[in-house]
Structure formats: C-alpha cells, structure tokens
Design brief:
The protein has 104 residues and is mainly alpha-helical. It has six helices and no strands.
C-alpha cells in the first residue's frame, strides 16, 4: 500500500528534476512562502469539499493537501519522520492536556 513515506520519497526525487519537468520542483523554487501559499489554497479547497461536495471530491482534495503539506515540509527541510515523532510525543497525554501545554 502507498504510504506518506512513499510520497515523501517521490517528492525528494522530483525536487532534483528541472522545473520544466517537475511540478514539485517548480513549487520548491518558489520557496517556503510560495509552497505554503499553495498549501493554504489546497486546504481551503479541502474545507469546501468536506462541507458540501462528494466523497470523491473530498478524497481528491485530501490527497492534494497531503502532497502540498509534504512539499512545504521539504521546502524547509523538515522530515516527515520529525513530524511523526512530534505526533508520537503528543500521544503520551490527552489532547486537552497537550493543547493546554502549548498555550502556556
């Protein structure tokens, strides 16, 4: 089964191609700000799909969001493993406790 690790590896490979051949590379050339802007656009499209479109549209937009999130991470050289490590660390306490700890 295809995984987020597979997607992260694909993004890393495509980051090495020319922007004429790789959409991923063209996003990365815009830097973190450009990659984040595109991610934000995709996130809005996901919200719209979640509240008023078909399951198929929601799946497609969710896939776009995951891809663009990983491109944002790549633009900052933050690994998926680091993000997963952060999520793992947070599972040691309840969501309410974890959120409260970030507020202080």
């Amino acid at each position: 089964m295809f995984s987020l690790d597979d997607l992260a590896r694909t993004i890393a490979l495509r980051a090495q191609a020319s922007s004429e051949k790789s959409y991923t590379r063209s996003l990365l050339e815009k830097g973190p700000r450009g990659a984040a802007k595109k991610f934000g656009e995709e996130a809005v499209e996901l919200v719209i799909a979640a509240v008023g479109q078909s399951d198929e549209a929601l799946r497609a937009e969710a896939a776009d969001v995951l891809y663009h999130l990983l491109v944002v991470l790549k633009s900052r050289e933050v690994s998926l493993g680091d993000v997963l490590g952060e999520l793992e660390r947070r599972t040691t306490r309840s969501g309410h406790e974890e959120k409260a700890s970030r507020a202080s």
